[in-house]
Description:
Strand content: under 5%
Structural class: mainly alpha
Number of strands: 2
Mean pLDDT: 93
Largest sheet: 2 strands, antiparallel
Low-confidence stretches: none
Order of helices and strands: HEEHHHHHHHHHHHHHHHHHHHHH
Shape: globular
Number of domains: 1
Helix content: 55-70%
Amino acid sequence: MKRVARWVGLIVPWVGAAVVIWWSVDRGRMLQRRQPAVKLGAAPLVGRSFSDGWDWRFGWGLVAAGVIAALVSVGCWRGWWFTVRLRWVMLASALGATLFATTLALTDGVDGVLYGARHETEYLANLKIAPPAGEFVRTFVDRIDMYSVHVRGHPPGFVLVLKFLDAVGLHGAWPVAMLSVVATGVLAAAVLVAVRATAGDEWMRRCAPFLIVAPYAIWMVTSADAVYTAVGALGIAAAAEGLRRTGWTSVILGLFSGALLGSLLYLTYLGAVLVIIPVVLVVAALIRREHGALRTAAAAVAAAAAVVGGFWVAGFWWFDGVSRTRGEYLDGSAQFRVWSYFAVGNLGAALFAIGPATLAGLTVLRSKRMWLLVGAAIAALLVSHFSQYTKAEVERIWLLFYPWIAIAGAGLMSRTSRRWGTGWVAVQASCAIVLQAALVSKW
């Protein structure tokens, strides 16, 4: 009976995923033909061409990504991830994730990296019309309809970042694109720090290769959401590290975490949902009576409150921004994006982004400590999903959550099952490369 239950537990997720993907592709294509304003083009994903975002092509970036994937796989096969010092695991993961995502983007040449930064709907286009920083923050809610669609859909934080870059002489699209490139590597390192603090050194090693070659990499260096994802990951990593420390170290890490997660609220409204992950870690630490739990949590709350208070004094109240953005969203493409499709289509897009190794890992992951991160991320994604304010574009919007779910792939990798794990790493990388070769993404 136990064997039957085990096989059911392994097979049902795969059957369910296959049905979700098939349904979201088939019904999404029908919806796009019937209602062009839905703007999908590669249902359930968003293509650069809203009528047909699929376009098989070859670029040398695909070859370079394949070489990187091969090196990562060889490292798994030879057990390299389990033998070198942890600092080298972290450095290799950060560098590997950056190179893999960048080479994928370079499939379309330099335009593949810069398109998302210099498009007229993105943030950079608003610098010409945005007033000085103080006035911009103070009048943001009242003047929101004068800005591009991405600015209207987010708090004012990222435009302030671009204003800073412009003020110090870093003009144009390249500095903006490089923020996302750097963020891709920072993200991998930050997630590994959090995994080590939560589940230990061994799980950090097992997670590393899956953070390099995940399919969501194709939306990293081409989107400002990569920056938000890295900021959130650093905040979670600082919280996780602080929870296991004592004295002033836990306080300092808590302050750092709160400042980052508080700042994330002003980069993306979805930052409020990502907070589910550190909250779960804090609750678990309090239950275990970890010495640094109370200090870290109190310091984080204080720092986040200071960030919120600072923006309030400057003239921007977060809830007013949420309300105004909600109105802009409902008046825009959301009116054509029916929940009857996206209730499933969003999940189909997420399955494309996390890849098959993640799904396989979810069926075999047995570490309770790892499930604190993975389970909290899944819960956060579902909260975002059922809010019904994320219809389509979730391959980019949910980048905040994907890395924390992708580490479930670590359940497939161990010192004694390296060959099995290597195969899954190769499958995951292959899916990312094939997806990049077929999809001309909007970002």
